[in-house]
Amino acid sequence: MKKEHPIKVAFPHMGNVYIAWASALKKLGVEPFIPPYTSKKTLELATKYSPDSICLPYKLILGNFLQALEKDVDYVAMISSPGICRLGEYGQSIRNVLKDLGYGSKYIELQLYDGFKGMYNFLINLTGIKNPIILIKAINIAVRKMFVLDRIENLFSYYRAREKEFGTAEKYYNNALAIILDAQNVKELKKAEKEAAALIKQTPIDLTREIVNVDITGEIFLVQDTFSNQNIEKELGKLGVQTRRSLTVSGFLKDAIIPKWFKKGETHLERAFRMAKPYLSRDIGGDALESVSDVAYANERGVDGIIHISPFTCMPEIMSQNIFPAMRENCDIPILTLIMDEQSGRAGYITRLEAFVDLIKRKKFIKNKQNKLQNV
Ligand code: SF4
After folding, report:
1. 33: which strand partners?
2. CATH says 8-130 is which class?
3. Does domain 210-375 have CATH number 3.90.550.10?
4. What is the residue extent of each domain of the chain?
5. Which one, 117, 122, 293, 364, has least CB within 10 Å?
6. Protein residues with CB under 6 Å of any ligand 1 atom
7. Number of continuous H segments (helices) and E segments (strands) in the chain
8. What are the pLDDT digits (tens) for 152-188?
């Protein structure tokens, strides 16, 4: 795949993953192309070439690729996996669409479930670089950045829920992302994380504000992607909710990419098998096992509520939603399930969020009152 000029490669959007990918590619002399952020236009474009009943993430990924190809990128890189659900068909299906549109030769694929080896071989095929030190450095910076991004996201959520003036934390957060994007090596990344955190901490906050904690779980793409989840965390922040994503890309990398001997503690997938066991004993595809276990985990930690987000027609998440009622016997935590598709109306969804937050605030108030009475 060697070319005279630096090859230009586009990856689909999924939250901030582009920042990590861009770093790995830059290290290898590849020009990362960041497609325009997912919008209604992206969705409209993809819908024209998608089967009607296919899930939302497929359409958005295809749309990102089509928009990138309009800008003449050399390759679009699909992260594929076998998957028990439709995820296993994404790669071939997108490849067929691009072939029909005359872009067949621009499609390349990374089999993520081949773990570290899959990523390593993908980068060799893409760049022709075979030097293991250079390749490992590229993977290392990408993986480390993903962990930093998830930590910064949590910090941002803390400040957004307590900010005195709406939008201040987000302004600092966006600048913080730019700082992290610029870091070229591990030393710079450590410095960038400190600077990014210091920036977000400049947000003036009201420490007397009543805050509730909510975990976000569900299908990983929707949990990460603010376009497809209608920026749920921003809306919750306005209501004084500090969110924590139960499914993160760094958590996924820990399970899928990072070699065993570098892992510390229980991974998300290991915990998923352990905690979901009384309700679901095997992986049924997508993130269903994780979603079920995340409810039990949030309940165990005394979190105030959990929101489960899934794309319309997502079979694994339909299964997990059907398991939640059976969990009520052991798990007292309030659960809100939201199903998203391209038709999801904003007003109705905000009303449901407000009602849910109202419910968990009241529940928390009653619980605190009872605790006080018991301690008298
Ligand atoms: S988990 Fe759901 S949304 Fe994701 S690919 Fe599978 S069926 Fe589609």
Report:
1. 10
2. alpha beta
3. no
4. 8-130, 145-207, 210-375
5. 117
6. 55, 57, 85-87, 219, 286, 311, 314-317
7. 15, 8
8. 999 999 999 999 999 999 999 999 999 999 999 999 9
